[in-house]
Design a protein that fits this description.
mainly alpha
């Protein structure tokens, strides 16, 4: 498609926002928006849109990635996408959104037997301890490694 949208990032040259950065109290949303806009613009690089992380948000709200993308393609702002998310899919109270976001921000894949081996393998090259790191710690460290690699090119 290769359409540049307002606030679109070139993820071959920079990282998406941290999953910790909240919009309407939704964790992941800012990062998902950055990846979606970059996907539409053709500048996604090594990142993925509608991936398992994005689907944590889509699953929580019971919306489809394709419907989210269709909304983003209209050129709406972060706030407008968050308002769309509030109104679509499964109805959630602000407290439910906050509690879900807090749980996800503190999620430690090491504590999940089905994710432990994968998480140990992902953390090792980044030099972070999988036993004490959250998923978001890992994503932030991975983004920092990407930024460092850009500086060495």
């Amino acid at each position: 498609m290769n359409t540049t949208l307002p606030n679109s990032k070139n993820l071959t040259q920079e990282t998406p926002r941290s999953p910790r950065q909240r919009i309407h109290d939704y964790v992941i949303l800012s990062r998902t928006l950055d990846k979606c806009r970059s996907f539409i613009a053709g500048t996604l690089g090594e990142y993925h849109f509608d991936c398992p992380l994005d689907n944590m948000l889509f699953g929580f709200k019971e919306v489809r990635g394709a419907d989210f993308k269709a909304q983003v393609e209209t050129g709406v702002s972060d706030e407008e996408v968050a308002a769309w998310l509030d109104k679509n899919g499964l109805s959630k109270t602000p407290q439910e959104v906050r509690e879900w976001s807090d749980r996800l921000e503190n999620y430690r894949p090491f504590e999940d037997p089905s994710k432990r081996e994968w998480f140990e393998q992902e953390c090792a090259p980044l030099g972070i301890d999988p036993k004490t790191s959250t998923l978001f710690d890992y994503l932030d460290a991975d983004d920092a490694a990407f930024t460092k690699s850009l500086g060495s090119k």
